[in-house]
Amino acid sequence: MLSDYLPILLMLGLATLFAVASIFIASKVGPFNPTPAKLAPYECGIVPERTPRERFPIKFYLIAMLFIIFDVEVIFFYPFAVIFRELGLFGLAWEEEGSIRHSVSRMILERARPTERIGA
User: Fold this and answer.
1) Cβ–Cβ contacts within 10 Å for residue 78, how many?
2) Tally of domains within the chain
3) What is the pLDDT of residue 43?
4) 117 inside domain
């Protein structure tokens, strides 16, 4: 049973090792010479002329958080996919129930978003 999860654990370990190694190598090999121009906020290469008139809409952050939440949920499908055939009809019912729950929660979250008036 544990051998079914070995590829997933191996992939998780390799991904973690790659991330840590990449950050470590970049910190040791990469140049670090900060200047005031490099530390200034970057806006597509254009020097900021003024401060923004209004606050940036929160709608974009909410969409990004929803994407991350539902993207992370996909990770939990891997163990289910490993034993799907062993579960039989119970597995199919469990998957359908989870799909319905997922859809309902997404609809609730989408309806809870604040609406944004264009041009106001």
Assistant:
1) 13
2) 1
3) 62
4) no
Separation between Cα atoms, residue 11 and residue 18, nearest integer Å: 10
Residue 14's Cβ-count burial label (10 Å; 0-12, 13-18, 19+) is: exposed
CA distance 20 to 30: 15
Q: What is the pLDDT of residues 83-93, one digit of tens each?
A: 777 877 877 78
Mean pLDDT, residues 61-74 taken together: 79
- Please check whether residue 13 lies inside any domain of the structure: yes
Query: Which among 113, 99, 92, 111 has a CA at the least distance from the CA of 70?
Result: 99
Residue 57 counted as domain residue:
yes
Average per-residue pLDDT in the chain?
78
**Is residue 37 a contact partner of residue 73, using CB atoms and an 8 Å limit?**
no
Domain that holds residue 56: 2-112
Residue 46 confidence (pLDDT) above 50: yes
Residue type, 57: P
- Domain assignment of residue 60, yes or no: yes
Q: Tell me which DSSP letter residue 67 carries.
A: H
